[in-house]
């Protein structure tokens, strides 16, 4: 069972952007949050009473949302550009081969 149809993702730039944005932002956010929880600057994440989950959530969302937007838009635009470029090159080579046959 395949969870993600790679062929379908590769033909639709917006779904590729969503996938890359989501996975990339989740990775960046989890690394930063782990680092912040371990480092615990000024004891704002953890203190004697436990973990300050509201501050953890605020920090995580402040990393996830911009990362998702930047990665999603950049990867979608890059995918669209590369697809258009390769389509143009393929069409040009097909036209050249057609001229050689004629």
Decide which structural class fits the backbone: mainly alpha
Number of strands: 2
- Give the overall pLDDT as a whole number: 82
Radius of gyration: 22 Å
Q: Largest sheet, described in full?
A: 2 strands, antiparallel
The first-to-last residue Cα distance is 46 Å
The proportion of residues forming helix, as a percent range, comes to over 70%
The general outline is rod-shaped
The number of helical elements comes to 3
User: Which stretches of 5+ consecutive residues score pLDDT under 50?
Assistant: none
* Side-by-side strand order of the widest sheet: 1-2
Q: Proportion of β residues? A: under 5%
What order do the helices and strands follow? HHEEH
Structural notes for this entry:
The chain has 102 residues and is mainly alpha-helical. The protein has helices at residues 6-11, 13-39, 53-101; strands at residues 46-47, 50-51. Strands 1-2 form a two-stranded antiparallel sheet. Strand 1 (46-47) and strand 2 form a beta hairpin. The radius of gyration is 22 Å and the shape is rod-shaped.
């Amino acid at each position: 069972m395949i969870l993600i149809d790679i062929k379908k993702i590769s033909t639709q730039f917006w779904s590729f952007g969503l996938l890359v944005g989501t996975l990339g932002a989740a990775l960046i956010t989890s690394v930063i949050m782990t680092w912040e929880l371990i480092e615990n600057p000024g004891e704002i994440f953890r203190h004697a009473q436990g973990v300050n989950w509201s501050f953890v959530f605020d920090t995580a969302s402040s990393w996830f949302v911009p990362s998702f937007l930047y990665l999603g838009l950049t990867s979608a635009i890059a995918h669209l550009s590369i697809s258009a470029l390769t389509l143009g090159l393929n069409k040009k080579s097909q036209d050249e081969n057609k001229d050689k046959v004629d």
